[in-house]
TrEMBL record:
Enzyme class: transferase
Source species of the chain: Psychromonas marina
Protein name per UniProt: Acetylglutamate kinase
Superkingdom of the organism of origin: Bacteria
Record has Metal-binding as a keyword: no
Its job: Catalyzes the ATP-dependent phosphorylation of N-acetyl-L-glutamate.
Sequence ranges assigned to domain Aspartate/glutamate/uridylate kinase in this UniProt record: 5-228
Signal peptide from the UniProt entry: none
Length: 257
């Protein structure tokens, strides 16, 4: 089997019907020419916000990670493993892709432990058993994976979707592309940085030029680049760029170790 391609989709795409359709059209075309195993790991922070707002719950983040009290995990799991996952499934199926909706727990794919008691039901995931996902890929299915996990304590955990993506990437040794709502990582002048290494990333994070969710994403990308050599970060707003991006052309930000 060829090296799988893992695309991590930021949740904001779920609020952009046209971008989502364009993305799945581009992916279908890519798969027709490349015939390569493909899987998606997705976020859905915007859907979580929406659900919590409707419940009159104000949600806070610490260092880009959502503080998730255990009595809110049901809403968060519903928003991520439910609504977000099924909205993406719907688009994938509509595009003719044989999608299968999963979470990190299915088939014991990933393990999770509590990250920090202050964050509540926030988990840190680790790779465990690739068999289920490999079976699906070998069968020509498209796994669509949410970042909800189940701990050894049988509790549900909310894992940041960028961190979930690198765990799945480690599990399968997949090539990794992060697609977000921005065209790459910006410098202080909001220009896309073509190539980002650990040293530059540390400096820009310390200067708050890279912050919030992007700081979490860049740290995850650097961790994955340790194993993979590089990780690409681009926008889901230009899915037609995906082919050039995968061919190594200058699109978005290339994160190297
Ligand atoms: N230096 C930066 N470059 C680009 N985006 C940044 C930067 N610092 C902070 N951001 C913010 O990070 C957001 C992307 O992170 P996040 O919302 O977590 O994405 P996703 O939902 O795709 O995982 C951007 O929309 C932007 O507002
Ligand atoms: C712990 C934590 O922060 N979990 C995230 C999971 C979803 C996510 O990461 O979504 P995006 O990729 O769309 O940002 C959250 O609750 O928002």
């Amino acid at each position: 089997m060829k090296q799988p391609l893992l695309i991590k989709l930021g949740g904001a795409v779920l609020e952009n019907e046209q971008a989502l359709s364009n993305l799945f059209t581009a992916l279908t075309t890519y798969l027709e020419t490349e015939q390569r195993p493909l899987l998606l790991v997705h976020g859905g922070g915007v859907i979580v916000e929406d659900v919590l707002n409707k419940m009159n719950i104000t949600s806070a983040k610490k260092d880009g990670l959502r503080i998730t009290p255990f009595d809110q995990i049901g809403y968060v799991a519903g928003a991520l493993a439910g609504t977000s996952n099924k909205l993406l499934m719907a688009k994938a199926l509509q595009a003719g892709l044989s999608a299968v909706g999963l979470s990190l727990a299915d088939g014991f794919s990933c393990k999770v432990t509590q990250m920090d008691p202050e964050l509540g039901a926030v988990g840190i995931s680790s790779a465990n058993n690739p068999d289920l996902i490999n079976h699906l890929l070998a069968g020509g299915f498209l796994p669509v994976i949410s970042s909800i996990a189940i701990g050894d304590d049988a509790r549900l955990y909310n894992v940041n979707a960028d961190q979930a993506a690198i765990t799945i990437c480690e599990l399968l040794n997949a090539e990794l592309v992060f697609l977000s709502d921005v065209d790459g990582v910006w410098d202080a002048q909001k220009q896309v940085i073509p190539e980002l290494n650990t040293q530059l990333a540390d400096t820009l994070i310390a200067q708050n030029v890279i912050q919030d969710g992007m700081a979490v994403k860049v740290k995850a990308a650097l961790q994955a680049a340790e194993q993979l050599g590089h990780v690409m970060l681009a926008s889901w707003k230009n899915p037609e760029n995906l082919v050039s991006l995968l061919a190594g052309q200058a699109v978005g930000t290339k994160v190297i170790k």
